[in-house]
Amino acid sequence: KTLYWAITELYNSGIDKIDKYNLVVKIGETKSTQKMIDKVGGDSFLDTQLDNALYLSRNTEEEYKVIARKIVECAFRRDTFNQMENYKRDILNTENNLNELNSKIINSFDTLAERFVAGEKITLFKDKIDRIIAEIEEDQKRSIDGIIGMKTKWDILSDVIRYEDGDLYLFAARRKAGKSLLLLEEGIDKASQGLKVIMTSTEMNDKKEMLRILSVISGIPIDDIKAGNIDGHDNGRQKYNNAIHFLKNADFTRIYDTNWTTEKLMINLKANKHKLGGCDIIMHDYIKDTESKDSSAKYNELGRWANFLKNDIA
């Protein structure tokens, strides 16, 4: 609360560069605010908050709305819980008139709903039509062969899907069916077109994946690369060197971790997006649930991951 107060005061006074120095000066103006910050760690607390701000900052109004909705939802749950706690005694008191008690409770929760659930401005669908049609017509101008979106590497797959901003595609298959190889070839193809590509993996460490990547790009079998039998192939050495050159210069990166969590994935993607100077496509290999014992729990966990990738990442 103290930190947000300081930020607001600075902004209201015309200071929109919110750095550590400005915060320290503002907080130090009163003993109570300085005492509050010192209580939670002082300088180290401020350093942590400012470091985290680089990862937590949003770039669009819609992203801020998503965060705001989550905060409002938590506040609604808290206030609802507190209201229910307040009514425990009234409910257990047999002398209270049931009709009056019922009316009191319903009115109270109606007020909560008005404050939180209906807090956003309601817009009728018909009032959005002009804007939506304008977006559709703008897309029509950018269509390629009559279809919006980017093709996959393979024409047969492009007949089914095209990549568009904000979309999530899940490729499902049994073990050892080629999911990772499909994603890798797609990632290299998109990077070769100049896109910024981030791949995350639970499957292969960097050394093993490097062998596969070099093989995909050069066309030289993995076993020959491992054994050093590169010159035995037509222009093998040149193809091998070209593959290395491509990886060094393309906007392509890969992150390996055997135990991804949604929080860890989010932080890593943000950091790598910053390093690359942006991100056009993310490929995560892969979502799985190795802990749940029954199919229902597995279903829910995979659904949670899909929801995270769609609504928090894409």
Structure description:
With 314 residues, the protein is mainly α. The protein has 14 helices and 3 strands. It has a 3-stranded parallel β-sheet, sandwiched between helices. Helix 9 crosses helix 10 (206-218) and helix 10 (206-218) crosses helix 12 (236-249).
Structural class: mainly alpha
What is the count of DSSP helices, taking H or I runs of 4+ residues? 14
| Overall pLDDT metric | 87
Taken in chain order, the helices and strands follow as HHHHHHHHHEHHHEHEH
Radius of gyration from the alpha-carbon trace, in angstroms: 27 Å
Unreliable stretches: none
Quick one: how many beta strands?
3
Helical content (DSSP H or I, runs of 4+): 55-70%
Strand order of the biggest β-sheet: 2-1-3
State the end-to-end distance.
31 Å
> What share of residues are in beta strands?
under 5%
User: Mind summarizing the main beta sheet?
Assistant: 3 strands, parallel
Inertia-based shape: extended
Draw up the topology in text.
Elements: H1 2-12, H2 20-27, H3 31-39, H4 43-56, H5 61-92, H6 98-115, H7 129-141, H8 155-158, H9 179-192, E1 197-201, H10 206-218, H11 222-227, H12 236-249, E2 252-256, H13 262-276, E3 281-285, H14 295-313
Parallel strand pairs: 1-2, 1-3
Key descriptive features of the protein:
314 residues; mainly alpha; 14 helices; 5% strand; extended
Question: How would you summarize what this structure contains?
Answer:
With about 325 residues, this protein is mainly alpha-helical.
